[in-house]
Amino acid sequence: MPKLIIDNIPVEVADGVTVLEAAQSVDIPIPHFCWHPALGKAGACRVCAVKMVDGPVKGIQMSCMLPAQDGMVVSTTDPEAVAMRRNVIEWLMINHPHDCPVCDEGGECQLQDYTIAGGHGIRRYSGTKRTHINQDLGPYIEHEMNRCIQCYRCVRFYQEYAGGTDFGVMGSAGRVYYGRFEDGQLESPFSGNLVDICPTGVFTDKTARFKARYWDYDMAPSVCPGCSLGCNTTPVARYRELLKMTARRNEAVNGWFICDRSRFANDAVNDPQRPRTPLIDGREASRDEALEALLLRIAQIEELYGSGSIAVVGSSRLALEGAALLPRLAECCSAGALCYFTSQEESDRTLPLIELLSSGKPASQRDVRESDCIVVCGCDPLQKAPMLALAVRQAWRNGAAVYVVPFGSAQGTEGVQKSTILQMNRWLSGVEASQEPKRLYDAISVHSLDAVPLADAKQPVLICSATNAPDRLAETLEQQSNLKLAVIFPAANSYVAAQLAGAHGAVSLEHAVATGKIKGIIAVEADIPPQLLEGIPFVAALDWRMTETVQAAQIVLPTTAWVEMDGTCINNEGRAQRFKKVMNPGVPVRGLDPAGHPPHIHRTIPPGGEPQPAWQTVAALIEGLCGEQITEPLSGKWERLQELAAESEGVMINDL
Amino acid sequence: MKILSDIAALLTGMWITWKHIFRRPVTIQYPEEKRTPYPRYRARIVLTRDPDGGERCVACQLCSAACPVDCISMQPGEEADGRRYAEWFRINFARCIFCGLCAEACPTLAIQMTPDFEICKRDIMDLVYEKEDLLIDGCGKSPEYNFYRHAGIGVTQQRGEGIEEKRPVDVRSLLP
Amino acid sequence: MIYDPIDIALILAKIGLVFFVILTLAAYLVFAERKVLAWIQDRKGPNRVGPFGLLQPLADLIKLLTKEDFRPIGADKWLFYLAPAMAAIPAIMIFAVIPFGAPLTLFGHTVPLQVADLNVGLLLFMALSSIAVYGVALGGWASNSKYALLGSIRGLAQLISYELSMGLSLVPVVMLARSFRLSDIVNAQSGCWFIVYQPLAFVIFLISIAAECKRIPFDLPEAEGELVAGFHTEYSGMRFGLFFVGEYINIIVLGGLAATFFLGGWHGPWLPPAVWFALKVLSFAFLFIWMRGTLPRLRYDQLMHFGWKILTPLALVNIVVTGWWLVLRG
C-alpha cells in the first residue's frame, strides 16, 4: 500500500494504482484524454503531466503512466507542470480545425473544456493544419478525422474492449488515422460507444446530428428498457424529441458502456403514430371522458356477463409503479383474472427462475466481469443481452475460462460478433459483415453442465436464458455454493411481472381466456396476440405504443413513455433501479407546423402532452371504481424504493 | 454659524434651479426630430450572409446560450452539402434587451446588430421574428469573412483546400 | 334668521365659483408642476396634448377615470373607499373661510368675497386640517399593504407634529388681529402686513404647511424611493386621483391661508384685490414646486427632530416675545 503526498494531501492507495487515480481518489482533478477508467492508460496525449517534487522519480511525469509509490511527493499545480500541460493543449490544437460551431461535440467536448481551462485562446502557430478524408461509417456514426488528437481511445475500446476487428489505426507520425480499411458500416454491436469515448468530435452520433447542444439538452438518469439487463443510460431530448441515448456509469451493471441496440432505439418514443389522445370507439375524447366511459363499460360488462368477466392484463415492460397497482385494480373491478403474462409458456418458465434468483445468488454484470469461470448455458448473450456478452469478454480477457453448453434453440453461435444486433434496427436490412465473424471470446464447448469444472472456480457464473433454461438448474446451484446465476429474461421488467404474478396468484391471459369467462380486457402496456382477443367483446388499452392491442381496443388511454415519467424497473438480477423523467410528453416540435417553425401560439400544455404515466391512469380507475385515492404507487413491500436515487447503483429487492 | 451656512446652502440650491428654469431644454422631439445612431448602435438584430451569398448562421446555439433573457431559439439542420444551417431561427423581440451578447458570441459573424431601434408592433406576437424576417441580403459588418473557408470541413471547398490547411493525408503512404 | 333668496343664490354662486376655480387650478397646478420641474431639469415637460400641452390635465383626468378601480385582497372595503374623500374634501372646505377679495356690492347687497365669514374661521381651518389626517391614516391602513401602512404611520406622525407648530405660529397673528375671523385678520393688515411684525412666525408657518401638504422635502408619507407610493400605493384610477388632487388643493388652500395670515390677504396697491390674492396664492404654489425641484427628502428622524425640537419651541418663544411686545406697547 504505497503512501504518497499529492498537493500536500497524504494519500494511501492500493498497489498498481496510478498517480492519476490516486489524485482522483482525493478529488484532485488531473486533465487526461487517453486515460480512461475502463480502458486504462496509453500515455498518448501527455496532458496529465504533474511535477514529482520528491521521491523515487523526479521532475515532470505523466501521472497516468506512473504507478503510485511510497514517498512520492506530487504537485499538480507546480508552474512547470502547468506550463507543460498548457503547451500540450496548445500543440494538440495545432491541427485541430476551427469548426466547433458546426461540431456536434461542441459544448460536451473534453478537448474544448481543457483548451479553455488551459487558457489557450489565440493560435500562435502560423503553419497549416493537417487534414484527412473522412469515411462513411454507416448510418449511426459520423466520422470527422480532422478533429482527432490521437489519444487511441477509440481503437483501444473497439479492438481490445469490444473485440471488433473492422476498425483500427493506420499510418504513422503525423498521418495516424483511425478508421476502417474502407468505407462501411461499423460491425461491432458496441460501436456507438465510440461517440461517448472520443474526447473530441471525431465520432459523433449521426442520428442526432445537428439537433441540439449540450446546454439545451433535457437529460435525466434513466435505465434502458431494451433488454432485461437494465443498463444505465442518460437519454437526451430536446423540443420533446428523444435525440439520443448516452451511456451512464454504473459499475455494478453496465460499467461505462451500452450496446448499440440500446443507443440507437429512439424510434419508438418519437414515432408519429404513437397514441397521444384518448379514444372512445375511435373517437377522440378528453382523458376524463375516456375514464368515465371505461368505468361505464366495466360496469356494463359486469352487468351483462356477471362478476369476474374482466381480465386485468399487465406486461413485462410495464414499470413497477403500474404493475404494483394492478392487483388493486383487479380487486376493485372484481376481475376474473389478473395477468402479467399473456403466454402460459413464458409464465411457466419465468416464475420458477424468479424464485431461484430470489433465494439464490444473482450475478450482476460486475460479477460476470470479475468471474474466473463462466458457463454460457443454452443461449447467446450477444443476441439477447449484448452487454452481458461484453462482460463475458472482459472476464475472458482477464483469463477466465468460458464454457458453452449448447442445447435447445441455441447451437454454437455464442459470442459470434456480427452486425446482427444492428440488423434489428430500422435502417439496416442488407449490411453484410465484411470478414469472417469474430468471436468476442474463445469458448470451450462442452456437452453438459456436469462437464464444467465448476468446483475449481472461485467465482463461477452461470448464464442462461429464461426461454431455454437448463433443467437441473436448482440442483446445480445447490451443489455449487459459490455459483452465481445470470438469467436473460425476454423483457426489461420480466422480473417485476413474475414477482407480482407469483405474489398475487396471477394466471396467464392464455389460461384465463381459455376458461371462456373473460369478456372484457383492460390491457396496461400489454402486447396481446390478436388471436387471444378474438371473441372478447370489450378491450381497453393503456399504452404509449401503437400496438395491435391498441388498434383493437374500444377505449384507448395513452400513457407516457419511460423517458416521460419517473419510474422503477427491476433488472434480471432483481436490482431495482429508478429512472427519471427526461422530457415532457407531447408531439415533437419538429414537424408540428408546416411553416417550418414552431407555431406562434401560447400554450400551457403542448399538443399531445396530456398523457399520464400508466400508474396514474390505473390509480384514477381505482379511484373511480372503489373511491380509494392513491398518491404513492410504491407502498407495502416496495415502500423503501420511494427513496431510491436514480444515480445510485440500485438496490437488490432481495434485501428489501 | 452652521445654521447660516446651511441656509445659504439651501438658497444656493434654489438659485441654481432658478437659473435652470431659463436654460434651453435638451429634449429632442423624438418622432419629428431624430438623431442618427452610431453605426455600432445595438438595436434590431439581423442574420447576415457570407460574401458568397450563403447563410452565415450555422445554428451553433451559442447566441441562444449567451442570451440572458432566452429570447433566441432555433433548430439546426444539415444541407445536402454538409452545411449546417438553421431550419428555423426565432428571436422574440418582445423579450430582447439588446445587450449584444448574441452578436458577441457569434463565431461566424452571422448575428449582427443594426441601428434600427424603431421596433414597435400593435400585436406582441408580431415581435416574434422568424428567420425570414431576420435574414438580410448582405454581409453587414466584416464583409470578407466566410466561416466555412476557415472551418476545415469541406463545404465551400474540397477538404484540405481551405485557408490554413494542408492537402489531405494519404493514410496508405508508407513514407516515414 | 331669514335669508334673502338673493343671498342664498349668491352664496351658491360663490360655492360654485370656488369649486370650479379650485378644481381647475388644482388640475393646472399639476400641469404647472410638471412644466416647472421639466424646466428646472432642462426638459420641455408635457407638450403633446393640445397647444403647449395645455390639455394635459384633461387627458390625465380621462386616463384616471378609465383606469381599473382596483381594491387589494383583504382591504377594508368601506374605509378604503372613504379615505380618498377624507383627504380631498376637508381641503376644499377650508377654502370656505378664506376671503379672496374685497367685498363687492351687487344688486344692492354687499357681498363679501368669501363663502362663509365665520367668527371662528381660523379654528375651523385647524379642525379641518386635522380631519384631513384621517384620509392618510385610513387609506394606508385599509389598503392591507406594508408600504401603505408604513406611509400612513409616517403621515400620521408627521401631520400631527407639524400641526402643532403650525397652530402655534398662528397664535401671534391672532394676538395682533385680536380675532379668529379671517376677514378681520385681513383687515388688520390693511396698513402693514403681518409678515413685517412676524417674520419668524411666517417662516415657521411656511415650513409647517409644506409638511402639512406632504411636499418635498417633507414627502415621507409618499417617499417613492422607499415606499413605492406610500399611503396611496394600492389606489388606482380616480381614487388615487382624489388623493392626488387633494394634495394640490391643499397647496392652494394653504397658500391662500399663508397669504391671508401674513401677506395681507387680498390687500395690495393698483391691482384689483382678487388678482392680488391670486398672485399671492400662485407664488406660494410656485415656491412649493421650486422647492420640490431643488431640495432632497429629509430622513424621518431629522423630520421629527426639526418639528419637535426646533419649530415648536421657536413658535412658543415667538408667542411669548409677541406677548411681551404687545404688553410693552400697551
How are the SSEs ordered, and which strands pair?
The complex is a heterotrimer of chains A (656), B (176) and C (330).
Chain A: E1 3-6, E2 9-12, H1 19-25, E3 49-54, E4 59-62, E5 73-75, H2 79-92, H3 110-117, E6 129-131, E7 141-143, H4 153-161, E8 168-170, E9 177-179, H5 193-197, E10 203-205, E11 218-219, E12 222-223, E13 232-238, E14 241-247, H6 260-263, H7 267-270, E15 279-280, E16 283-284, H8 287-305, E17 310-313, H9 320-332, E18 337-339, H10 344-359, H11 365-369, E19 373-377, H12 381-384, H13 386-397, E20 401-405, E21 416-417, H14 420-423, E22 438-439, E23 444-445, E24 460-465, H15 473-479, E25 484-488, H16 494-504, H17 509-514, E26 520-524, H18 530-533, E27 538-543, H19 548-552, E28 555-558, E29 567-570, E30 575-579, H20 614-626, E31 651-652
Helix pairs in contact in A: 8-20, 9-16, 9-20, 10-16
Chain B: H1 2-21, E1 45-47, H2 62-66, E2 72-78, E3 84-92, H3 101-105, E4 111-113, E5 128-129, H4 131-134, H5 147-150, E6 165-168
Antiparallel strand pairs in B: 1-4, 2-3, 3-5
Chain C: H1 5-40, H2 56-66, H3 77-94, E1 101-106, E2 109-113, H4 121-142, H5 146-177, H6 182-188, H7 194-197, H8 199-212, H9 224-227, H10 237-262, H11 273-294, H12 300-329
Antiparallel strand pairs in C: 1-2
Overview of the structural elements:
Chain A has a seven-stranded mixed sheet. In chain A, strands 2-1-5-3-4 form a five-stranded mixed sheet, sandwiched between helices. Chain A has a five-stranded parallel sheet with strand order 23-20-19-24-25. In chain A, 26% of the residues lie in helices and 18% in strands. Chain A contains 20 helices and 31 strands. The model of chain A is unreliable at 418-436 (pLDDT under 50). Among the domains of chain A are: 3-92, Ubiquitin-like (UB roll) (Roll), CATH 3.10.20.740; 279-346 and 496-576 and 610-655, Rossmann fold; 348-489, Dimethylsulfoxide Reductase, domain 2, CATH 3.40.228. The two termini of chain A are 36 Å apart. Chain A is of the alpha/beta class and 656 residues long. Chain B is an alpha+beta fold and 176 residues long. Chain B has a domain at 45-150: Alpha-Beta Plaits. In chain B, 22% of the residues lie in helices and 16% in strands. Chain B is elongated and about 100 Å long. Chain B starts with a helix and ends in an 8-residue tail after the last strand. With 330 residues, chain C is mainly alpha-helical. Chain C has one domain (5-329). Helices cover 68% and strands 3% of the residues of chain C. Chain C has twelve helices and two strands; from the N terminus they run H-H-H-E-E-H-H-H-H-H-H-H-H-H. Chain C has helices at residues 5-40, 56-66, 77-94, 121-142, 146-177, 182-188, 194-197, 199-212, 224-227, 237-262, 273-294, 300-329, and strands at 101-106, 109-113. Chain C has a two-stranded antiparallel sheet with strand order 1-2. In chain C, helix 3 packs antiparallel against helix 4 (121-142) and helix 5 (146-177) packs across helix 6 (182-188). Chain C is globular, with a radius of gyration of 20 Å. Chain A binds chain B through residues 97-102, 106-107, 128-134, 144, 146, 170-175, 177, 179, 209-213, 215-216, 239, 589-590, 596-598, 600, and chain B through 58-62, 64-65, 75-78, 84, 87-88, 90, 107-108, 125, 128, 130-131, 147, 150-153, 159-160, 164-173, 176. Strand 6 of chain A pairs parallel with strand 6 (165-168) of chain B.
